[in-house]
Amino acid sequence: METMPVPRQTFMPEVKRKEPAIRDSTIVMKQKTCRRLYFFEVVCGFRLRGRATAYLAFGGAYHVFREVLEKTQDLTEALKACMAYWMKYGSEPAVGTKYDFLTGRRLMASCEEAFKHWKAEKAQGKIEVIRGLVEGPAVVTLSDKKTKIGARFDQVTRWDGRLMPRDFKSTSKNKKWFERGLEPNDQFSRQSLIVWKLSSELPFCTSVELLVNSKKEGPAIIPLTTARTEEQLLKFEEGEIYLSEELANCREKDMWPMEEKQCNYCDFRVVCRAPTERAMMAQLNAGFEQKTWDFTAADVNADPGEAEAE
Ligand code: SF4
Questions:
Q1: Ligand 1, atom nearest to 263 Cα
Q2: For a disulfide at 297, which of 149, 153, 220, 301, Cβ 3.0-4.6 Å?
Q3: Global confidence as pTM
Q4: Number of domains in the chain
Q5: Which of the listed residues 30, 258, 261, 271 should we mutate to test ligand 1's pocket, taking the one with most ligand atoms within 8 A of CB?
Q6: Nearest CA to ligand 1 atom 3
Q7: Residue 310 pLDDT greater than 60, yes or no
């Protein structure tokens, strides 16, 4: 994976840096939240050690189900692949924990619900999944000829002949909560811009298909859409280039300012409040592990902060 150069390393000089050159939504959101957080999580790849990731496996297994179902058009094959993923990465949650409803049984019920939705959609005959246009992890270079942005795609489709990327989300949030987050939304703007650049056709909208499961609700499939105009995407591109230049300045000066308004819920609070760099290093060594961020990796490696939306 291509990484950014390190022109200066005076802050925490003993820590290895592997900042990805391709900017996906997750890492850009870190930068927008706090430059110091970006430094810890993206430049150095620190993550809280031993964070529970069982709920990520649920979403990952569901994505596998949708992918194999589309490829094979065969429910049995899709369920087999989904279960194999769940057996490898998932586990039955302990009763009374936050995500104790995300069981293997709920996963099967979710796949059945999604299959009903998929069949009804096929019978309607309006949607066509396009192969070979934009698939999996995709990358484009922006108009400054330097900034590279990337995104993973679940599907790119045509709805009634019109271009429409589609994203499958497994969430415990309700429809209203999710609708509020569709616009502005970095991920969907980024996906639209990438599809537009790669296909030379402006997508008429992005489809966001929710699989909702919570303690009280679900499984339920809720389709939503969100659209971006040409003007919005051009502004988004300008913003991406600006943010990329801002980071070049951070690298040049090795300066990663703190955004204290964001600290209350941040994993790195324990590090940032340490009085010396040596004490900060001790906190990092004690509670965190280092893993290079790679947006092309499978969902099970997804960023925990994004888990609800993945
Ligand atoms: S604790 Fe605050 S300053 Fe430190 S990384 Fe987190 S948000 Fe940034």
A1: 2
A2: 301
A3: 0.92
A4: 1
A5: 258
A6: 258
A7: no
